[in-house]
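The authors assume throughout that readers already know how a fold can be written as discrete tokens. For illustration, here is how one protein appears when written out as sequence plus structure tokens.
>
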Amino acid sequence: MNFSELGKVIEQLGKDRGIKKDVVIGAIEQAFLVTARKKYGIQGEFEARYNTDDGEVEIYQYKNVVDSVKDSIVEIGFDDAKELDEDCEIGDQLGIKIEDPRFSRVDIQTAKQIIFQKVRDAEREILFSEFKHREGDLVTGIVRRYERGNVIVDLGKADAILARKEIIYGETFKPGDRIQAYLSEVVMTNRGPEIRLSRTSPMFLVKLFEVEVPEIQDGTIEIKAAAREPGHRAKIAVWTEDRDIDPVGACVGMKGSRVQNIVNELQGEKIDIVKWHDEVEVFVKNALAPADITSINGNTEEKVLDVIVEEDQLSLAIGRRGQNVRLAAMLTGWKVNIISKSKLQEKVKFSVENLTQLEGVTEATAQVLIQSGIMSVVDLSATEADDLARFLDLSSEEAQKMIDTAAAGIESEEIANEPSEEAEIISASAVPSARMGMIAKESESTEEGDDDKFSEAEKRLREELAAFKLK
């Protein structure tokens, strides 16, 4: 079968669409193989070959050489086989070239559809592999249109999706606008690779700093953590080994030029740049700036920090609608409780008054009990004797006697069970978000994971192609 233009088409597809010659030839051979099976019957064994020298697609039908032919589709008589190949013997399989297959218009149309489908699938694989390895990069594109609230962005070789939830609050785009975004994910769908962008991810903020600050690009300064409330406020923690370099000042730039460029890109989002520290108490103190912190108590097991501040520093520590404390929690990865010092003192005062109702409990003893977490007579009655003995440096008998006295006092209702005035000491509390925070965890996606995703996508694609061929 001679196709004078077939070789030119194959070459052109390779140049224009980047599809390898072998892929196009394989698509053509597969297409005519399927067409031959439909025309001559699926019982026969056929093979299609593309002859690069002649530009022909040659179709061969394989038959078994037998003495007596029972099925002419899969068998050929020995005498007839001898005329085609003198060396053949009974039991051999002989490939017979079909000189004129006489395909109908419908057959040719079927072959075209298969070729086009294979070419499209090859293009999808090329796009997927190209953009998959760009996950985590900053990309620039042109806005084309809106689809169901999502922005379709032209990246040159492919369109990407900037979902509505990934757009900074208040942002609007017009067709033709040039925008930057973070390439968060590339997934293979039934319609081909889907490239997903984000402008709300903390990693978008990180990538913008990498572009603006040369010291981050060359590794002199490292971004340890980032947290955002897109369109409102963000915090970023930086660190360097070089003691001669101020990491915060380098990121701010001369007269704030570097950070101002990023603020403009993020639609006026306020950015706090803080110095990272390996001691979480120091780090959270930096993260809560500009508030002055009185003291910090940490629970390592539960990853909770109680931050104590003066009354006039409460609003600064908490921030507008709790933004400051939320971002600090995201940045550190710890739960942060903001506690008013005056309210804490009131709480301690009420607890001392409650505990000193018991005979033998002095104010000094009550202070020791409070430091051990025993805030009331009820707490004391529920304490283990060995623990109480350790707290107050008593014998087990003396500790048990104090516990029994507390229990008897509660039962007889001679003393108040709880402090007379309960003070809520936690003014604000925030837990780290799963999506935002330490970037080390986000950026440390292993290469093995990427390879697995890529191989799974390839397998799905090949399974779909196989299913198409069988139809």
